């Protein structure tokens, strides 16, 4: 991500500055019995600083192999310190050869993976630092380990927040672009397709017969197309707004009512619920006639989403559903009840002769 760039550049600057600091300590020869070996370690540090600076600047190389190599090289330079310090190891005022350079991989791990990976890298480096000290109770060493943990956790947290902010900004930009495109399409479609569909619907009703059925279908497609144009594009990844699926079934004979706020469900659950609603509406059309009225009401409760489908037909006689199931007609049993049961929900059907039928579908949200 582009927002990570400043973090990696800051780590590169830190590597160079801490390398210079380690070289200055080596030049003063304070606490180092084997300065030649020390300069060899400094040389390795310089080579790795150059290589890591280049590698981390290339996004495709920022992967776990590079991070693991970064930590291994740092630990190798740190664990070489006893051979450079000799008998002066642990003496007051002495530092390992890498000095503060060892914090660079901790920062890199934190930027890449967040708080936990930063803390894990800090634990490895701090353990190596503590192992080198002959007087573990020395407060300076303990303070250094604490600072490594704080750096890993804080930098990892800030980097994670920055990534999340960039993702939100990117989604917002995509939503805005999609909305602009939708508005452009709406302007183009409104004066052509929608008007033609509306005309077919009106003329079909006037002519009657088979043309009335064509008019009804044109009305359904007009309502679906209007909803597609007006629908909001933004939903969380992996979720679907059930409203947008239900509103497609709206027509002069079917009234769909939904809340103003999204009814977010897992994509598979939303599609299954919409298919069950369609099966219920198909039953209304098949058993009550094409002119029968139906009402679809969707609402959300505490951890549930409920969709009810009510019609003004003659109702279902007692025992009719059991007879249909025994005869192998499984429209209600499988297309509605079976489908909803597979999604973890349940269906209740209430029918009064002469007063219509109501099918209520309840799903976990």
How are the elements arranged and paired?
Layout: H1 5-28, H2 35-57, H3 64-79, H4 81-85, H5 103-113, H6 115-132, H7 139-207, H8 210-230, E1 239-241, H9 242-246, E2 254-257, E3 264-266, H10 267-288, E4 294-300, E5 304-311, H11 320-326, H12 331-342, E6 346-352, E7 356-364
Helix pairs in contact: 1-2, 1-5, 2-3, 3-5, 3-6, 5-6, 5-7, 6-7, 7-8, 10-12
Coiled coil: 158-195
Keywords: Coiled coil, Kinase, Membrane, Transferase, Transmembrane, Transmembrane helix, Two-component regulatory system
Domain DUF5931: 1-167
What attributes does this structure have?
11% strand, Heat Shock Protein 90, alpha+beta, two-stranded antiparallel ribbon, 7 strands, 365 residues, elongated, 12 helices, 2 domains
């Amino acid at each position: 991500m582009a927002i990570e760039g400043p973090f990696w550049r800051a780590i590169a600057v830190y590597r160079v500055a801490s390398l210079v600091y380690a070289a200055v300590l080596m030049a003063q020869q304070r606490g180092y019995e084997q300065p030649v070996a020390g300069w060899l370690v400094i040389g390795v540090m310089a080579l790795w600083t150059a290589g890591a600076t280049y590698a981390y600047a290339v996004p495709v190389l920022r992967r776990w192999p590079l991070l693991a190599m970064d930590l291994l090289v740092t630990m190798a330079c740190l664990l070489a310190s006893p051979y450079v310090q000799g008998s002066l190891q642990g003496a007051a005022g002495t530092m390992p050869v890498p000095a503060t350079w060892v914090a660079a991989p901790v920062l890199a791990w934190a930027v890449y993976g967040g708080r936990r990976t930063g803390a894990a890298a800090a634990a490895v480096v701090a353990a190596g630092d503590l192992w080198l000290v002959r007087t573990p109770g020395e407060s300076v060493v303990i303070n250094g380990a604490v600072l490594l943990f704080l750096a890993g956790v804080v930098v990892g947290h800030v980097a994670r927040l920055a990534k999340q902010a960039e993702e939100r900004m990117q989604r917002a930009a995509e939503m805005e672009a999609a909305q602009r495109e939708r508005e452009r399409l709406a302007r183009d479609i409104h004066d052509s397709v929608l008007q033609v569909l509306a005309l077919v619907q009106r003329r079909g009703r006037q002519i009657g017969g088979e043309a009335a059925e064509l008019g009804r279908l044109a009305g359904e497609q007009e309502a679906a197309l209007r909803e597609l144009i007006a629908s909001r594009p933004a939903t969380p990844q992996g979720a679907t707004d059930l409203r947008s699926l239900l509103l497609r079934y709206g027509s002069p004979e079917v009234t769909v009512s939904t809340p103003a706020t999204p009814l977010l469900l897992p994509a598979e659950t939303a599609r299954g619920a919409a298919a069950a609603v369609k099966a219920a509406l198909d039953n209304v059309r098949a058993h009550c006639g094409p002119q029968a009225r139906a009402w679809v009401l969707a609402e959300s409760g505490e951890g549930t989403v409920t969709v009810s489908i009510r019609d003004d037909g003659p109702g279902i006689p007692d025992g009719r559903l059991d007879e249909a199931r025994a005869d192998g007609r499984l429209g209600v049993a499988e297309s509605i009840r079976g489908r909803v049961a597979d999604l973890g929900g349940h269906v209740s059907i209430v029918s009064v002769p002469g007063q219509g039928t109501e099918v209520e579908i309840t799903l976990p949200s």
